[in-house]
Specification:
single chain; 109 residues; alpha+beta; Immunoglobulin-like; five-stranded antiparallel beta sheet; 39% strand; globular
């Protein structure tokens, strides 16, 4: 089956756009520690989890904003929105750019 070039170009453009939009709906969590870190995103009805290996980063889906919590850290969760980058600083989750976690924090168990 032969597809016209315009259809091929449109399909390729859509695929690139879909791939570019995916990560934009996520929060990136960096783990600079020497131990794996389990992180959850409170989306209301669900709380997906991801394990961030030591020295690595991972993305959590957070399409409309969420509370990000690290299991095992005696710290507060962080109210994050899509595109935010979080890291572990002084044993707690914090914005990677150095922003304060004071706004909208809740205690993680």
């Amino acid at each position: 089956m032969h597809m016209p070039n315009a259809v091929k170009s449109a399909a390729l453009g859509f695929a690139v756009l879909a791939l570019a939009a995916g990560p934009a709906l996520a929060v990136t969590v960096q783990n600079p520690t020497d131990k794996p870190l389990e992180v959850t995103a409170d989306l209301g009805a669900s709380e997906p989890k991801v394990t961030v290996d030591a020295g690595k980063s991972a993305k959590l889906d957070c399409p409309e904003g969420c509370e990000v919590r690290a299991v095992g850290l005696n710290s507060y969760g962080v109210s994050a929105k899509t595109g935010d980058k979080l890291t572990v600083k002084d044993g707690a989750l914090a914005f990677a750019e150095g922003a304060s976690t004071e706004k909208g924090k809740t205690k993680t168990q």
